[in-house]
Amino acid sequence: MSQPGIKEQRNIETLRAPVIKDIGISLLLLLASRASLLGMFPFGAAFFAACFDKSIAYIGITVIAAALLTTAGKAALVKYMIAVLVFWIYTRFRTKNNTVADAACCGGSMFIGGLAYLIYNFAGVYDILILLIESLVTSVMFIIFQKAYGLMENRHKRTQTAQDELISIAISVGVIITGLSGIVFPHNISLANIVSVYAVMCIALHGGLAAAGSGGLCIGFMSSMSSPAAVIMMGIFGISSLFGNLLKSFGKFGVAIGFLGGSAVALLYAGNTFSLPLSVIETAVGALLFIITPKKIHNIVNGFFSRSLVIESLSPDVRIREYLSMQLEKTAKAFKSLEECFENASEKRLKAYNKDVASLFDEVADRVCEGCPNAPKCWQNEFTRTYRSIMLLLDTIETKGILSLDSVPLSFREKCLRCELFVVEFNHVYELYKKNLVRMGEAVTSRDLVARQYREVAHLMESMSEEITAGFSFREDMEERIVAEMDKSGITAFEVNVVENGRGKIEVYLSVNKENETGLMERVLSEITEVPMIFEQRVAGGLLKFAAGAKFTAEVALKQICRDYSKACGDSADSFTTEDYKQYIILSDGMGSGRRAMSESHITLKLLKEFLQSGFGVRTAIEMINSALCLKLDNECFSTIDLLCIDLMTGICEFYKIGGAESILLRGTNVETVFSVSLPVGMMSDIKVQGQAKRLNDGDTVIMMTDGVSEAGFGTVRTEWLKNQIKMPFDTMEDMARTMIETAVKKSRDAVVDDMTVAAIRLIEN
């Protein structure tokens, strides 16, 4: 027997008894049902359809009937009761919620109720037109009420509030306030106007300028749409809300004063208060209620605006940054895979070395033991003893370098029938084995070095990806201040752009009327940005570019002389500054002297400079250069690296010494020595790149040198004279560097036995 088909589940809600929490929604339904538009009352039906719990539909229908009896009278009661009942019957049979279908059905229900009403009260085509408009308004208000109700129901779970939801809240509040129309206190004071003033002030306090303006317009129109003064009220609330928002930095009192100021402007245009639909007393009472409202309630209202969601399209530069960052990360991943491949190949090759010993024994046995009558006995019956004997011979040849007949144990000579041939072949096969071992070892080393190159390239690309992702930001807060301060100084700024990159460097681009007043502009920009700003150049479009200047300047002097009788200096030295305000001073000493040493140090210095200027980190640059020199494509290439990196923004410096001579540092009155911690580059595939950080202040001095200077003299402590020399006052670093070289030559008894290079550096605060 086949299983019967399961019918589609209907959305049937069982009627229930009312509870206390139903009072609030019923009161809102009552007010919405009282709201009218050109003599129509579509808001109650729309609110019932969108927000009211259908399990107590009988209460909702009763509330709507009571509201209509107190406003529209018995004549319109049948029309709206039919509309509400039709929609309620629709909800009993629908299978799922669909906003568009529900909104259409809500409007259709209103149209059906209107047709039933027109059967007895048809006056002409105009009635049909009005009914179509009312049906359309009902459908639209259904969507608006549903958005507002959904936000209110889930306000604790939501982290963002969309702009259309905020507008829906404002329109819904306006409709509810309209339901208060007709409730008048003595002296013709309208409760609806008081609540409208209160609501608009709340929006002005907690919303932005756009939200305040649009909210004031919506509430102003919706709260008075039953009267001809709706447009006037919309204008009053709109301008008053903007005035209040402009003064919200002064709190609730500022908003109230701003709103009253906006109302005063409307009063000036009207000429007298009697022509306005909003009285002074109503405004004052609303403002007073707003001011005395507890902070806890204001925090609840502020929650809707603080979570407001603003959707903006990504600018082209953001998309480009994301694309470039993604591509660099993919490329870095590919280079990491290459590194792993090379390292795995090296490991497999190293494991294969252990098997080569067994192949050596097999080769010797094939050459010597083939055809020997004792071969089966040696390699089968007594295999273990034979293998141990040959291992002893291998140990002998590795120790002495060659195997002779005299070095063969007597037991082996007596047992082996071809002992002399065995010794000759064993020496020959072992020599081939050693050559193959060396060749394969060099191949493994080369693979490891290439793997390191790939690793450093991958690291560089990852760093570039991070820098691109950091990107830059526009400092709009500074732009407004710059325009104001420039105007106070008599300079009109037509265009201002303040850009801050990922490293915190600020650049300002200006288009002004007085382009020759760069000094005045530098002072104004420096006060606003709180960093020294310097005019750099005129860029494309005629804009003036100002960039944040460094806090310090490094005075650098380089001096060097060649070894006696040498035509070329084996030392290379250079100093340069990068865009991120890093001052680099580099000394490189090639092994020996002359042209070859000069070539070695020049290659190292050139590569290092290019890497650093391209954005490489110091450690990455040194490790890449070391692995490249270790490959020894032509011949051996060794050179030292003595690098000093000074951050001109902070004064922090780092010493990197790869085989370099010691440096002397004068900080205040204290003299320190910085020593090398690694061998020169190109000697070992794995070097230790360790920076030694120091903080420099204004006037601190550093002496860097090659070993031709540090080894000058014949005392037990050869650098003691350098420590005394650095304490001496010098007008310029040129004088200090020249004096250091001359003193070093004198210490060596006027004999320059090695190339000498000195770098004198003094930090000066700007």
What key attributes describe this structure?
five-stranded antiparallel β-sheet; 57% helix; disordered N terminus; 766 residues; 25 helices; single chain; alpha+beta
Structure description:
- The protein is an alpha+beta fold.
- It has 25 helices and 19 strands.
- Strands 5-6-7-9-8 form a 5-stranded antiparallel β-sheet, covered by helices on one side. Strands 10-19-18-15-16 form a 5-stranded antiparallel β-sheet.
- Helix 11 packs antiparallel against helix 12 (280-292).
Major sheet details:
5 strands, antiparallel
Tally of alpha and pi helices: 25
Q: Tell me the strand order in the biggest sheet.
A: 5-6-7-9-8
The level of helicity is 55-70%
Give the C-alpha Rg.
45 Å
* Structural class assignment: alpha+beta
Strand content: 5-15%
Average of the residue pLDDT scores: 76
Number of strands: 19
Cα distance, first to last residue? 97 Å
Could you say which overall geometry the principal axes of the C-alpha atoms support? elongated
Contiguous low-pLDDT stretches (5 residues minimum) are 1-11, 308-316, 348-354
Strand and helix map with partners:
Elements: H1 22-34, H2 43-51, H3 57-71, H4 77-93, H5 99-121, H6 125-153, E1 161-162, H7 163-178, E2 184-185, E3 189-190, H8 191-206, H9 209-222, H10 230-246, H11 251-270, H12 280-292, H13 295-306, E4 308-309, H14 316-368, H15 375-381, H16 383-400, H17 410-415, H18 419-470, E5 472-474, H19 476-488, E6 493-501, E7 506-512, H20 518-529, E8 533-538, E9 544-548, E10 552-561, E11 571-577, E12 582-589, H21 595-613, H22 618-630, E13 641-647, E14 652-658, E15 663-667, E16 670-674, E17 692-695, E18 701-705, H23 707-710, H24 720-726, H25 733-747, E19 756-765
Parallel strand pairs: 1-4
Antiparallel strand pairs: 2-3, 5-6, 6-7, 7-9, 8-9, 10-19, 11-12, 12-13, 13-14, 14-17, 15-16, 15-18, 18-19
